[in-house]
Design a protein that fits this description.
2 copies of one chain form a homodimer. Chain A contains 11 helices and 20 strands. Chain A is α/β, with parallel strands linked by helices and about 400 residues long. Chain A has 2 domains: about 140 residues, D-serine dehydratase-like domain (Lyase, Ornithine Decarboxylase, Chain A, domain 1, Beta Barrel); about 160 residues, TIM Barrel. An 8-stranded parallel β-sheet of chain A has the order 5-12-11-10-9-8-7-6. In chain A, strand 1 and strand 2 form a beta hairpin. Chain A is elongated. At the A-B interface, helix 4, helix 5, strand 13 and helix 10 of A face helix 4, helix 5, strand 13 and helix 10 of B.
Chain lengths: ~400, ~400
């Protein structure tokens, strides 16, 4: 994706187009701000760690790509394979299908209007899985499949406690809908799928382990109930980064779908999924205002560079909008907090007197609260090893 | 910008590229979701209203384009002229300079690294104004201007109570910095500029009128002080949508820079800047999940379509993440609130039982809390008159 060349010194350089000026970038310090930075060493480590973890837990890894939305990261996340993925938009599905990924789960409840595009993807890749939790969505799939002579690969979405989407596994309607999927000649009923997003309300890894156990037990119990009714439940898919990080064993589960772990973020550090040194995504920023009397700095990373996710306020009410770290080696800057964000201004307050070295031009990185939302603010990521810029990745945007 | 053609029936149609399928869109109901919708009738009315208001107040209007970031909207906002504008990024500055706007104020404090690009813009348009509030930024401007033989057009940024950026007008440093700008052979000192963003903490128009009076008085008093020191203060620039909406008179002020008013949003309705029928921006969305037992719907507009601005919680702690309105005529849907947002899911709760007509496929629009942030989630706006899609605008993104 990048326009990489070898520089005269043998360094890999990147060509950036800023207005009419073409610059050759070799080091982080030459990047303009605000800008998204991906630490490749950390990202590779996170990818390998989850691959190893899935193997140890005896489950398939179907990583979610919604956090980064770019092919280069997905290839690292799948250990070089272009196979199993989870996506959150049809634009992602199209992008990754084009890149050769051939077993894709579109993991949001289906809009009836999306059915034709899902049919096209079903014909394009080896397996394209959709999820449903409502008879109206099944009606739409069956009607289209009948008219166009195809079969959809379908998971039943289950609510295991997040109370966002999914059938209630204790309800008779859940069994009825599963039975309908199982019997339909237009459906290839793959199994059941859930996301224990309530794990984001946990305060530590021990609480997340409890949510993980509940997620696993709910799904295994529900599968047993369906099997007791004579239904084939080939796959049980679960996953969120906090639960998969915390869980000890996953008997009965066939696949996991974590996504955020590849980047991690300030939220995940606060609830114990990782430490700050694991976070592979940050936003490079420059001080544009310094107000010593108010112990305040203004930086050029505002809500459009960091998003406006309030973060883990249940763990730390003063968490602010991210963690300020040093530009070159990502060490925390103690006492400096991102207290407010407007569109293009980030306001930092210092607990003590401002360091006189902090003035317009000083650069930091900010580890955002929620890397999925912050990464989506950027149309390219500057990929670094240490402070050397080694690549430029372009995520897919929109729907 | 759009690929408009006349349809056989004489309707203007729009060509949209969804994957490999090309559709001709003539009506709102044919759009895929989530999508940004701009109501052209309302936008034109808001534009004309502010143009009239500036005239009545006896001030120049230098509208901020950061809310919409597209040339078509800016032309309506400037009554067809391509002259005076305010921008929040250098990418906007470049876009609008290319479109012929020739008097542009870059209204965020200057990063020293941005100086070369500001110099290029200074040479490109008739007047390119930067703002400063720190000696380091002035050092950077002077050094560059000296080496490259040019003069920068500069405003001194003043803090009138927001406590984000700007010099304290009561401080001796403020007068010293203004004096330096006034005397510098490399600066064309235009005057003083402020933004009373604390108006967003107001609960109604009466409170905003008080903030507006304070904004005006602070600036007029500070200008008098500088003039008393022998400095020429040609211009006094103020503005935010809440203050300009509420203010009765602006003696001594030369220009105003509101921006949000062109779209307005749920926040502005809550604090009394406008009524819901004035809001020209909304996000079209589809129900993808319906859970009657929980009185809950899930729609396909999540944090990546609406942004995650918490909204006017100081006026209404239960405001949620926007106002749900009907798809075709934007009437409020009472009792239906956007209670949470994750990346691609919006969760709506109903105060009463769910209307049985609400099921997967039902469409609404959501008026976001903060249109500046929500609009930035989209790479195109569907422009409508009533329910007819009449244009497609592409905003500029990034920095």
């Amino acid at each position: 994706m990048s326009q990489s060349t070898l520089s005269p010194t043998g360094n890999q350089t990147q060509t950036y187009d800023y207005g009419v000026v073409i610059l050759r970038i070799v080091n982080l310090r030459e990047l303009t701000t605000p800008g998204a930075v991906v630490d490749l060493d950390r990202l590779e480590r996170n990818a390998a760690w989850m691959t190893h973890r899935a193997k140890k837990l005896g489950v398939c890894l179907r990583p979610h790509v919604k956090t980064h939305k770019c092919v280069e990261a997905a290839k690292l996340q799948t250990a070089g394979q272009t196979k199993r993925l989870t996506v959150s938009t049809l634009a992602e599905a199209q992008e990754f299908a084009t890149a050769g990924f051939d077993d894709i789960t579109y993991a949001v409840p289906l809009s009836p209007k999306a059915v034709p595009e899902c049919a096209r993807l079903t014909r394009t890749v080896k397996r394209f899985n959709v999820i449903v939790d409502h008879p109206v969505a099944v009606d739409a799939l069956e009607a289209y499949a009948h008219t166009h002579d195809l079969r959809f690969s379908v998971f039943l979405k289950v609510d295991c406690g997040l109370h966002r989407a999914g059938v209630d596994p204790d309800s008779p309607e859940a069994v009825t809908l599963a039975g309908r999927l199982h019997r339909s000649s237009r459906m290839n009923f793959r199994g059941i799928l859930t996301h224990a997003g309530q794990s984001y309300s946990c305060r530590n890894r021990s609480e997340a382990a409890n949510v993980a156990a509940h997620e696993r037990d709910t799904m295994v119990t529900f599968a047993a109930k369906l099997r007791g009714e004579g239904l084939t439940v080939a796959e049980i898919s679960i996953g969120s980064t906090p639960t998969i990080t915390a869980v000890d064993r996953l008997p009965g589960i066939s696949e996991i779908r974590p996504g955020n772990y590849l980047f991690f973020d300030a939220f995940q550090t606060a609830i114990g999924s990782c430490v700050l040194e694991d976070v592979a995504f940050s936003v490079l920023t420059t001080v544009v205002g310094a107000y010593p009397d108010a112990q305040r700095l203004v930086v050029d990373a505002g809500a459009l560079a960091l998003s406006k996710d309030p973060g883990p306020t249940h763990v730390d009410p003063d968490c602010g909008f991210g963690v300020v770290v040093t530009e070159h080696d990502c060490r925390p800057v103690p006492g400096l907090r991102v207290t407010s964000l407007s569109q293009e201004h980030g306001v930092l307050h210092s607990d003590g007197p401002l360091d006189p070295a902090w003035r317009p031009g000083t650069r930091f990185r900010i580890v955002p609260n929620h890397s999925c939302l912050a990464a989506a603010c950027h149309d390219r990521y500057h990929v670094v090893r240490g402070t050397e810029v080694v690549d430029k990745w372009r995520p897919v945007r929109g729907w």
